[in-house]
Design brief:
Length: 215
């Protein structure tokens, strides 16, 4: 990315309701468009929530909205790319609010950069994560997925972003077909390493990689 960009403002917000994070993203993107803030990334975790992207098939949620809510999930339909996914405690979610105009205006380059950020952070733990041709996100092999990516873009300003499974309850994915892909097994940093890894620790490594990629 452009080495002349100003420093990236990375904000660690702890646990934040999905609706509040969505409102904050919209507020920051408007401020970024008006030049009132610079490029910003929100790092946080959510309470249990199921989100449907623009391309989601309703059948990829294995319960209807009322059943999902009764099982403790909030439900949102949003303007990000991708299908259906889960966010919840122990999962590191990142929402970059970036201006891609100085960055070649290429969404594919941006997606690969986000994947590279997560692959670099996982490498710090000795985890050999990979890209998978034709599928956004970060994988360990053709079956196991450790991070999902779904972005939104308007006037070359980004929102939404990535979700890296750190120390989450992977059973919460059982309410959906993750990312609409049959046969995918969601895994986490803690499961791969066989020990509990703190979310904040991983967030700091992701912040370092974000700075290398975007600042």
């Amino acid at each position: 990315m452009n080495p002349q960009n100003p420093p990236l403002d990375v904000r660690h917000l702890g646990r934040l309701a999905y609706a509040d994070a969505l409102a904050l993203q919209n507020e920051l993107r408007e401020a970024r468009a008006e030049g009132r803030v610079g490029d910003t990334v929100l790092l946080l975790e959510h309470p249990d929530v199921i989100t449907f992207g623009r391309g989601a098939r309703e059948g990829n949620a294995l319960m209807d909205d009322a059943e999902l809510q009764a099982a403790g999930y909030d439900v949102f339909r949003v303007n990000r790319g991708g299908d259906v996914t889960w966010h919840g405690p122990g999962q590191l979610v990142g929402y970059p609010i970036l201006d891609l105009a100085p960055r070649k205006r290429d969404v594919h380059v941006y997606l690969r950069a986000l994947e590279g950020v997560l692959i670099g952070a996982l490498a710090d733990y000795g985890i050999d994560a990979i890209r998978r041709d034709g599928y956004a996100g970060v994988w360990l092999d053709d079956r196991r997925k450790i991070a999902s990516i779904g972005v939104g873009l308007r006037r070359w300003l980004t929102m939404h972003g990535f979700a890296l499974n750190v120390c989450c309850d992977l059973r919460r994915f059982e309410a959906i077909v993750p990312c609409g892909l049959e046969g995918v097994e969601m895994t986490s940093v803690s499961e791969v390493l066989g020990r509990t890894v703190a979310l904040r620790e991983v967030a700091e490594r992701v912040e370092f990689q974000l700075g290398k990629a975007f600042a």
